[in-house]
Specification:
single chain, 199 residues, alpha+beta, 8 helices, globular
């Protein structure tokens, strides 16, 4: 019940002021922005929307799966399917995941995309109160090797240079990367323990 009430409240929110940045990202990454309103607000609908945008190998399930399913279940969520006006954010970030898989030549796993505020605030989740996940503007990724993460970092920095309008936010660790697009807090970078430069 809490999950349904929360989603109803979210749907009433205005579309992000920089919504066009996600369409820009989708096009830059080789996709085609689709109209989310043409698809049902279901997991299958989101999967079909992603395919229409040009996402081939990142599923709706992998984007919406809670990293802490027990915490999500306690809050009334089985998955984290956001309102449809935020689907372009997922498509843009999924296309980045696909590019990073090409660049690294290894699996790149999605750990977090959208995190509802109540879930994000749970101590087990440890999300930043003013972070990008509650707005569905960021994704956390895990790599198999530090070398893979370094290749990913180099590609992300080149994306940032070629398209500064994305205002990338980058959180860099040894085997993990936080990637945000169009953050309300703008372009920024931070490092987790174990990070060494990818250059």
């Amino acid at each position: 019940m809490l999950a349904k009430l929360y989603l109803v409240a979210l749907v009433a929110l205005p579309v992000h002021a920089q919504g066009d940045v996600f369409a820009l990202a989708i096009r830059h990454l080789g996709g085609t922005p689709a109209r989310a309103g043409a698809f049902p607000a279901t997991m299958a609908g989101f999967d079909n929307y992603l395919r229409q945008c040009g996402v081939r190998n990142v599923s709706a399930r992998s984007l919406t799966r809670p990293n802490h399913p027990d915490v999500a279940a306690r809050l009334g969520f089985q998955d984290f399917l956001p309102p449809k006006q935020w689907w372009p954010r997922g498509a843009a970030l999924a296309l980045i995941v696909e590019k990073l898989r090409e660049v690294t030549g290894e699996p790149v796993e999605v750990r977090n995309w959208w995190r509802p505020a109540a879930y994000n605030a749970d101590p087990r989740v440890g999300g930043a109160r003013n972070g990008d996940h509650p707005d569905a503007c960021a994704i956390d990724l895990d790599y198999r090797t530090p070398a893979g993460r370094m290749h990913a970092e180099r590609w992300l920095r080149s994306l940032d240079r070629s398209l500064p309008a994305l205002k990338l936010s980058l959180g860099l660790g040894s085997l993990t990367t936080h990637v945000g697009i169009g953050s309300a807090r703008g372009h920024r970078e931070w490092h987790y323990p174990g990070w060494v430069p990818g250059d």
